[in-house]
Amino acid sequence: MKSFECGTLVPGCRWHTEAPDAAEVVRRAAEHLRTAHQEETIRPNMIDEIKARIHDKGVTLA
Q: Is the pTM above the cut of 0.70?
């Protein structure tokens, strides 16, 4: 299971998601950025930033 916490990208945001694969996590995170943070365009570098912050559930980021 893959996990992403939006607060690692957008300070103060408490939203998080989990999915079986990274592609679904990226899809959900991009949708969250559009709706909650009013990002009209999700640029390729933003996708890279999301991917860099995805981790396996149960593994904490230091």
A: yes
Name every residue whose Cβ is closer than 8 Å to that of residue 48 and which is 6 or more positions away in sequence.
none
Please write the tens of the pLDDT for every residue from 20-51. 999 999 999 999 999 999 999 999 999 999 99
Q: Are 9 and 30 in contact (CB under 8 A)?
A: no
Length of the chain: 62
- 61, pLDDT greater than 90: no
CB-based burial label for 50 (10 Å; 0-12, 13-18, 19+): buried
Lay out the sheet containing 55-56: strands in order across.
16-19, 2-5, 55-56
List C-alpha distances in Å: 20 to 13, 17, 33, 59: 22, 10, 20, 15
